[in-house]
Every structure is written in structure tokens, then in C-alpha cells.
Amino acid sequence: MVYDKTVLDYIGNTPLVDASQLVAKDGVKLFLKLEGNNPGGSVKDRPAFNMINEALKRGDVKKGGTLVEATSGNTGIALALIANLLDVNMVLIMPKNSTEERVKTMRAYGAEVILTPADIGIEGSRDLAFKLRDEKGYVLLNQFGNDDNWKAHYKTTGPEIWKDTNEKITHFVSAMGTTGTIMGVSTYLKEKNKAITIVGAQPDDNSRIPGIRKWPEEYIPKFFDRSKVDKIIEVTEADAKVTTQRLAKEVGVFAGMSSGGSVFCALKVAESINEGVVVAIICDRGDRYLSSTLFE
């Protein structure tokens, strides 16, 4: 048999695994969508491919051209991988306190990585991306305001969850970063069944959780529509960390802290209902956090 598929053909169609043992409640099922199984190791492969591919189709960027994007990690890795395979140059800007694994992975895929001071956070990285767009003529993807971000999940993640739960899903839970995942999946699932409850995980005011943000008003992603999220549950850094460790030990799912935040909120949802099918997003793999204190 001759195989002609590339890495890009294996983005999406990730496993949905049963983690109902974490709930231990008759009538309530908990499933985890393992986005770390994407080629680039995270849920961000989906929007990264869709944003670059659609930009090429429209002629916003040409092959051999240069894209620029601010990232906290996973989107940057996905963009570095996919841009190189689609013959586009990639400049990524991220805070200096990002884990070493992330920076090295982006560079391994061929991207130029610029590190901004940690104290100005991802907001400072976003500001520099706009500056480089204006000064150097780079094409800014702007994952925080690009409709091709959430549409990737409308086209793929939502339909996969609907199909793999045999159309039985009652609650969907996702960490909120760029909010592309929750916007796209919510839009799709609500079209199928308006009664499905959409839940967003958000850090409390005293917590820093990689991949989950509570944005200042001026930095809220432009496509975020609060009406598409039925409930927002806040999670502490400590609870996200403990839940991430539980996922590895009790379910065999090795993930990052944003996934722990997502599942913590999913467990809160499970506690509040007597029956239902809850699906939570596992955003990435835990191996890109080994240099952090997450698993200590």
C-alpha cells in the first residue's frame, strides 16, 4: 500500500477517552478530548493550520512570505510546524518566562523566536507583534482577532465531539485563552442542541495558569461572544496543578496545567448534575512542562 499523507493530514480526529472514574457518580459520564495527540502536541494545531491555510488561499501571505504572531507557547509551536511545511517564514514573540521546552521546539521547527520581558506578559508580546507588522511589513495572523481561529473548531472539534458522544453530550468544558476553542465548539454544538451547556474555565484573580487567561478589557479577543458561554467557573493555580497531577496518576493522561484547570471545572459541573455527558478539552501534553514545577 502506498501512503501519501503528510503530518498535516493527521491534525484533528483526536481520541475521546472515558475518565468517569474521576466522577464516581452513577448517571454522569466524563470524557476527555486528547488534543495532545495532534502532530504539534496541542489543540492549537487546528487553528494554526486553518489560519495559515486560509491566509494563503486569500493571498494575504504568499509562499516565502513572513508571518508574525504573539504566543504563550502552544500556538507558536503549531505555527512553527505548519508554516514551515507550507513554505512560509514564521516570527514568534513570547514572554521570556515561557518554558525552555516551548522555545526550543519552536526553533527546532524553523521559526525565529523573539522573547519579550516577562513582566509585560503576553500583552507586551502582542504589542510587539503589531509593531513588527507596521515596521517590517510582516503579515500578522492575530489569533486573538482572527475568525479563522474559532472557525477551525467549528469545522472540526465540534463535529468530532458531537459524533464521538453519539450526539449525547450535555456539557462542554474548555479552558479559555484566545477563546477560539470554546467559541467554535459552542457555535457548532448549539446549532445541534441548544440545551447543551457551555462552560469556560478561567483563573481567579490571584492565579497564573499557562494557557488560561482573564484578559484586561482592551485585550479581550475580538471574536469572543459572552452569550455563547453559559457559565464561567474560576479555578485557582493550586487546584489546576493538583488536578493535572491526578490526570496523570489516575487516568494516565499526561497534560499541562490548563487541562487541569479545564478538568477541575468539569468535575465541578459533574458534582452539580445527576445525569449527563460532560466533555472536557485536554489542551496539550505534559512533556513541555517538565522544566516547570508542575509535576513536583
Summarize this structure as a short list of keywords or feature phrases.
Rossmann fold; 10 strands; 2 domains; alpha/beta; 296 residues; 6-stranded mixed β-sheet
Describe this structure in words.
With 296 residues, this protein is α/β, with parallel strands linked by helices. The chain has 2 domains: 7-37 and 157-289, 3-Layer(aba) Sandwich (Rossmann fold); 44-140, Rossmann fold. Helix content is 38%, strand content 18%. The chain has helices spanning 45-58, 74-85, 100-108, 121-136, 147-164, 180-192, 237-251, 257-271, and strands at 16-18, 28-34, 66-70, 89-95, 112-116, 139-140, 171-175, 197-203, 231-235, 276-282. The strands form 2 sheets. A 6-stranded mixed beta sheet has the order 1-2-10-7-8-9, with helices on both faces. Strands 5-4-3-6 form a 4-stranded parallel beta sheet, sandwiched between helices. β4 (89-95), α3 (100-108) and β5 form a beta-alpha-beta unit. α1 packs across α5 (147-164). The longest helix is centred in the middle third of the chain and has 18 residues, at 147-164. The termini are far apart. The mean pLDDT is 95. Belongs to the cysteine synthase/cystathionine beta-synthase family. Pyridoxal 5'-phosphate binds at residues 74, 177-181, 258.
